[in-house]
């Protein structure tokens, strides 16, 4: 293969479409601190995503850390080990103890059946992840949260534009956070957001992301600098015009992979998620024992062909040094997550991936399986 095929490539608006935004920034010299493009992007995203209140952030991790602050979450929080490390790091940054609970083998999200057993008097919240944009069992999680008086913050970093039958999945729980990192479906280079259910919560979050300033002389909380700048917001506005086309390209790639990989023994594509609208943010496959090579051998074989697939999420968060001593981190307490993490490979998926390129990727896998 001539050029490296990465797991993802940023999807960018045409350069000339950025020009008017740049001219306006240069003309009015408002670079950050809630300028006009920041406000426009908040409004445009609310409309596009079908939610009422969005606060933009410099990145998704700061959004997570701030969401926990906004709800004054303390003590222990139940979360998944099968995610990007930022999910659990946001807890440590708030002095909160993560309690890992195993995942469901179908959705790969927190298994609602196993949450209750992990609740203690110290538990104050649940932090589930819609992994790969596949919706969590939101109704069941809410029921548990209501029974035990817990907050629910969804890490929806992968779930831009995902909908269940009643609309955006970002409306579930007390808060949802998004990431607009370069590797995400919708990107502002670095960026993120918190989706709030009401204006009062959004206001508190907006104070928190701006050092706690309520006005020039009033600080209402020990806030942080989490603000998105005007350049990032402008990129978001320009990109939003092309997002529907990008999402349909992703859907087409997903369909084609499924056709090409369907009959390879030991390669399993995940069943389509239980969502009314999916974003195809990742294309995970499971390398099962029936495949000739191990998962890592296949990963290496792909690299030999310049295919830079990724093992999202291996290692599990619970295996990293700052987590592994926790009682909930043992493989025996998260066996499904451990097995999944040992089998998964995420194949390249992004709007400009050519049909010929994905056919080549599938043929490397097919040949490796012979
Ligand atoms: N929660 C969850 C569930 C998350 O997945 C994430 C982030 C967060 C929270 C935190 O959100 P942020 O604070 O990041 O907004 C990447 C991303 O850095 C990270 O944002 C993402 N999750 C995670 C799943 O993936 P790496 O270490 O795999 O990134 P990297 O640099 O190896 O990039 C992967 C591939 O993407 C590269 O091989 C090539 C391509 N790429 C990447 C970048 C940065 C480009 O083509 N251009 C680029 O600019 O973590």
Structure class:
alpha/beta
Helical residue percent?
Answer: 25-40%
CATH architecture tag of the largest domain = 3-Layer(aba) Sandwich
- The arrangement of helices and strands along the chain is EHHEHEHEEHEEEEEHEEHHEEHEHEH
Estimated share of beta-strand residues: 15-25%
- What number of structural domains do the residues give? 2
Largest sheet properties: 7 strands, mixed
Q: How many helices in DSSP terms?
A: 11
Instruction: Note poorly predicted spans.
Output: none
Question: What is CATH's topology name of the largest domain?
Answer: Aspartate Aminotransferase, domain 2
Oligomer classification: single chain
Explain how this protein is built.
- By secondary structure, the chain is α/β, with parallel strands linked by helices.
- It has helices at residues 19-28, 36-49, 60-70, 86-92, 138-148, 199-208, 230-240, 243-261, 295-304, 335-343, 355-368, and strands at residues 5-6, 53-57, 76-79, 97-100, 123-127, 151-155, 163-164, 167-168, 175-179, 192-196, 213-215, 218-219, 267-269, 283-287, 307-308, 344-347.
- The strands form five sheets. The chain has a seven-stranded mixed beta sheet with strand order 2-10-9-6-5-3-4, sandwiched between helices. A three-stranded antiparallel beta sheet has the order 13-14-16.
- Helix 2 packs parallel to helix 7 (230-240).
- It is globular.
- The structure holds ligand T4K.
- The site of ligand T4K has 24 residues, from helix 3 and helix 4.
Annotate the secondary structure layout.
Blueprint: E1 5-6, H1 19-28, H2 36-49, E2 53-57, H3 60-70, E3 76-79, H4 86-92, E4 97-100, E5 123-127, H5 138-148, E6 151-155, E7 163-164, E8 167-168, E9 175-179, E10 192-196, H6 199-208, E11 213-215, E12 218-219, H7 230-240, H8 243-261, E13 267-269, E14 283-287, H9 295-304, E15 307-308, H10 335-343, E16 344-347, H11 355-368
Parallel strand pairs: 1-15, 3-4, 3-5, 5-6, 6-9
Antiparallel strand pairs: 2-10, 7-8, 9-10, 11-12, 13-14, 14-16
Helix pairs in contact: 2-7, 3-4, 3-6, 8-11
Bound molecules: ligand T4K.
